[in-house]
Every structure is written in C-alpha cells, then in structure tokens.
Amino acid sequence: MFYLESGQFSTAYRQDRRLFRLRQERLALWLTVLAAYTVVPWLGNDYWFSAILIPFLVLSLAGLGLNLLTGYAGQLSLGSAAFMAVGAFATYNLLLRLPGLPLLAGIGLGGLVAAAVGVLVGLPSGRIKGFYLLVSTLAAQFFVQWVLTKFSWFSNDSASGVITAPPLLLAGQDFSSPLGRYLLTLSVVLPLVLLARNLLHSELGRYWMAVRDMDTAAAVIGIPVFKAKLLAFAISSFILGVAGALWAFTYLGTVEPHGFDLNRSFQVLFIIIIGGMGSILGNFLGAAFIVLLPVALSVLSGVYFADWLPSGQLENLQKIIFGALIIVFLIKEPDGLARLWQQARARLRVWPLRY
Amino acid sequence: MSFLIEVLLGGLLAGVMYSLVAIGFVLIYKASGVFNFAQGSMVLFAALTFVSLLERGVPFALALAITLLAMLVLALLIERLVLQHLVNRPPITLFMATLGLSYIIEGGAQVLWGSQVHGLELGIDDVPLEVGPLLLSQFDLFAAATAGVLVALLSLLFSRTRIGLSLRAVADDPLAALAVGVRLRRMWAIVWAVAGFVGLVAGLLWGARLGVQFSLSLIVLKALPVLIIGGFTSIGGAIVGGLLIGASEKLAEVYIGPLVGGGIENWFPYVLALGFLLVRPAGLFGERAIERV
C-alpha cells in the first residue's frame, strides 16, 4: 500500500535510467538527505557526532568500497585497511607538501593514489583466482603498514609514524568542530554513494556482476574480465582511500599506521557480511551495526554485569558475540541486513493484506 | 660459507614449524573445501588448554588426553553448529564463517583460561647443537622430527585405514562418496578433529617457542603463504612450501633486511608466494581447477 509501484510508468528512456525509479524511494532518499543535513545537526550533540555518526559514515563508505570489489566484482580482499592507510597518508602528505591545496582536492588526490596502489595490487587478479588472490591483498596489507612505519618521510618524521590532521578549512570556513566534521564527512560520503549506485547501473557494474557470478562464462561472452577486475580494484581502492582520509582527518584527528592493521580490514569485511554483500544500503546497515554494537554492549554490561565481569573480559565477550553473529548471519541471512529491508518492503507493498 | 648454510638450515627448520600449521589447513580444505581461517585460533585454543591444565597440576599425559578430547568436542560442535548449516554454500561464505569461528574460539579460549602469557616447558633444552662446523637449534631439530612423525602418521591414516579411504573418497568427490555410503558429516567431524590434533602439536611447539598467548593465533598469517605456495590440497606441498618460506625468509632477513631497515618478515613471505603464484596459479602441488561453463 505504501509501496505501490502501479501507475508509475517510464515514458522516456531518461526515466528508465534514473537511479531510483520508484517515487517512494526518491522521496525517502530526499527526506533522509534533508534530515541528515537539518534534523540531525539540530538534535545531535558532540558525543553523537564524534563517537557515532562520523565513524558510522566513514565505515559505511569503507564498506561501500569493499562491497564494490567483493560484493559486486567477487574479488575477495583482506587489504581494505591498507588502501585506507594509503589514502590517509597520501592526503596528509599532499596537503603538507603542496601548500594551498584545497582540503577536498587533497582527499580526492589521496583517493587517486590509493586507486593506483589498488591497481597494482589487482594486477595478479588476471592470473590468480579465488582464495589464492588473498595473498595479493594480504601482501599489500603488510607491505603498506611496513612502509608507513619504516620510512618516516610519510609521516613527516614524526615519532612512530603518527600523523595529525591539518586544520579542516574549506572555503575559509573552519570545519573542526564535531558538527563541522560531521557535515564535511556527510558531504563527501553522499556524492560517492550516489556515484557508486550510478556506476553499478552502468555497463561496468553489469560486467562486475558477470565476473563475480562466473568469470569464465563472462570471458566467453566477451566481457573484458581483466579490465573489469582492475577497474573494480581501482574504484574500490579510491573509495577506501577517501574513507581512510576521512577516518584519519574527520574522525580521529591523529592516526598511526597501526590504526590501519589487519583487524581494520576484518572490520570492513564484517560490515559487508552483516550488512549484505552486493547491496548499497547494506553498507550503511552493517556500519551502523558495527558502530553501535560495542556501544550497546558496554552500556549493557555496565548496567548488568558490572559486578561479576572483569573489565578485561568484556573485550573477549564482544569478540565471541561478534563471531557468533557473523556465523548466525551467514547461516540465517546470507544476504545480510539489507535482505531484511527487502522483506519489509515486500510486506509494505501488500499491506494491510498479507499477500 | 658455513654461516650461509647455518642460516639456511635454521630457516628450513623454522619452516617446518610453519608447515605444521599449514597441514591442518590442508586437511580441512581437502575434505570439506573449507578454507579454514580458524586454524590459528585452534592452535591457540589447544595450547592454552594444555598449558592451563598443566598449571593446575594435571600430569602431562592426562593433560594431553584432556586437550585432545577438547579438540574432538570442538570439532563435533563446529560440525553440528556451523558446517551442517552451510552445506552447498559458496566457498567464500564458508571462509567467512571460519573467520567468525576464529573470533569465537579466540574469545572463548581467553574467557576460559585468561589472557596472560603462559610459559610452556616441553623438557627440550634449547641449547645449540654442534654438528660439524654448524650450530643448530636442538629445539628446531626436535620440531622437525615431530613434524616428520606427524606426516608419517597422517599418511598412514590416509593410506591404511578405512577412515582414510573414506576421507580420500570425500576429497575426490563428495557427492559420489555420499552415494556409496560414506557418512559425509561424520567425515567432516573427523577431519576437523584431526586438524585439531595437528593444531595441538603445532600449538605445543610454537607455545614452547614463543610462550602461549594470544599472538599464537596470528601464526595463521605465517601459514597462509606456505599454504599458497604449496597448493591448498597437498600435504607434501605444505611441507615444501614451509621449507621454501622458512629458508628464503631467513635468507632475506639476513641479506636483504639490513639494506631496507629490517622488519620485512611480515610481508616478505607474501610477496614470495605472489611470485610463485604468478608462475603457477594453483601453487606448486595444488590441483588446477578445470572450469566449465
């Protein structure tokens, strides 16, 4: 009833190609964006901005980056954090060494550097398939971390490779307050998400899905498999690089290479497993889950188990719950939280009837 | 010259320790097609259980038996609670399930036994042994011998017993095995238990070397390149891969490391494995997948 598609016809090719074909979806999107820019800043406080909303947005973006590569193009990667690190450190160095470079241009160029590294890492994918490809992304993961800690040039000779964000100036405005950083993050994330959605509806997006489903078959029908894979690596790394720059500059403020270790890669992977592989909405749901679960757990344990649970155990308990949730999701809901939304939509479509 | 040989031999022996972890992987991959990322945490769990029992005054043999039993129960639980529900899912899903599994096992082991570092004494002196002009670690020799015995036992299991026959059948073609009456699920449980046993051996040796602590589960990252060089389906490949990685890692550490400031042991094996893969995309001894559309 709320989701009736009947009566919405495409009468021009332009309409047929639009990103959101349903009026309701377009409305929901505009309302969400509007709310994110007006209601949320009005309601939120500094804690919400800097501890929940910013990491949520950045991790959603990182999830999107990995999802393009793993969920859409089917190339398993355990090196997401390496690309994030490249993005963060490249942006830092660009802003440092090219005075006068606008902040957003720095982030974009940092993303491009990450994309270049991504292509390099993706090169073996032309010859190696499946799990064997893990070795390429893991090599990147360890190598990038090693380079960034070993050569202090990348961190401007600071101790142990820590970098600190420059002042977040944009068109003369200072965006360093929690609200400002939130708005900045939001304004970077939104266009990229729309871009990705657009991309997935394009020829390239179809190529990726064909390669994911069976790359031999894709090659047989004439899809340039290697090119599609490389582009997947490049675009995914670009987005991850931007996410890394945001993570360093708008979320943490200071970051060291160690902050982008293998665990961060796993975290991004879990976002797309829990949220849903091959879904854009899933990245947001998964990121929200990943950000909110530790908060919820520590609040809960503070209320209920504070007496008998030693503080060190909380981390282990979180680990167990995380692991269990992943397995439960894989068993019960292999398509992730995004699938739950699809089911809800199917129900809304016929509501108040059952079918 | 003798320095070179010493480094080389030291590396080869260290490589055997990597192989021990990789063998557990291969067993599971062969029998169930699962890329088991949880092997490292199984190593940790086994070692931690064993050490904690020892520290509570349980005699060595009994502690070993109890730990073995624990690994068996763990294998049964994994089969019952996880694998059984994921039959016929794509390999990537199974891989991610083992990622979740490794979180559970790591967390569980530490909730159960605490997260402090335990020392483990196996009664082998780690004094260097002089063989002619060379100095070799006695402990490494012991580890290599253990690995040799283990591989011999495994090949006996595979070639001489009924279980081994069934396991080979399952590895060859699960559907055909099922059709002739092999109990697939029981075989999975068995192979996970055997991998748990291999994990226990690896855990004891690595634990005696590094101390039993959380970082033990990270040796899974050392075993991965070994596995990839050797191919996922070959136990012999795991050994050869381990030797290759161990030797070249040590040589690189000694001869290339100083040039670039050291610390290369984290990524060098992966780059090496990548080099091997570019020449042989399924590892040295792995089965080449034949794809049909």
Report on the structure:
The complex is a heterodimer of chains A (355) and B (293). Chain A has 355 residues and is mainly alpha-helical. Chain A has one domain: ABC transporter involved in vitamin B12 uptake, BtuC (Orthogonal Bundle). In chain A, 70% of the residues lie in helices and 2% in strands. Chain A has 15 helices and 4 strands. In chain A, β2 (169-170) and β3 form a beta hairpin. In chain A, α5 (80-97) packs across α11 and α9 (203-213) packs across α11 (225-252). The longest helix of chain A has 28 residues, at 225-252. The model of chain A has no long low-confidence stretch (mean pLDDT 86). Chain B has 12 helices and 2 strands. In chain B, α1 runs antiparallel to α8 and α2 (39-55) packs parallel to α4. Chain B has one domain (2-216). Helices cover 71% and strands 3% of the residues of chain B. Chain B has helices spanning 2-32, 39-55, 60-81, 91-113, 138-160, 162-172, 174-179, 184-210, 219-230, 235-255, 257-260, 268-279; strands at residues 128-131, 134-137. Chain B has a two-stranded antiparallel ribbon. Chain B is mainly α and 293 residues long. At the A-B interface, α7, α10, α12 and α14 of A face α4, α9 and α12 of B.
Q: For this entry, what is the oligomeric state of its chains?
A: heterodimer
Largest sheet of chain A: 2 strands, antiparallel
- Please tally the helical runs of chain B, counting DSSP H or I stretches of 4 or more residues: 12
Structure class of chain B: mainly alpha
CATH class of chain A: Mainly Alpha
Span of the ends, CA to CA of chain B: 54 Å
Q: Enumerate the strands of the largest sheet of chain B in spatial order, edge to edge or round the barrel.
A: 1-2
Q: Approximately how much helix is present in the residues of chain A?
A: over 70%
List low-confidence stretches of chain B: none
What is the count of β-strands of chain A? 4
Strand order of the largest sheet of chain A: 1-4
β-strand amount of chain A: under 5%
Mean pLDDT of chain B: 84
The largest β sheet of chain B comes out as: 2 strands, antiparallel
Q: How large is the count of helical segments of chain A?
A: 15
Please tell me the overall pLDDT of chain A: 86
| Tally of discrete structural domains of chain A | 1
User: What class would the helix/strand composition of chain A place it in?
Assistant: mainly alpha
In whole angstroms, how far apart are the ends of chain A?
A: 11 Å
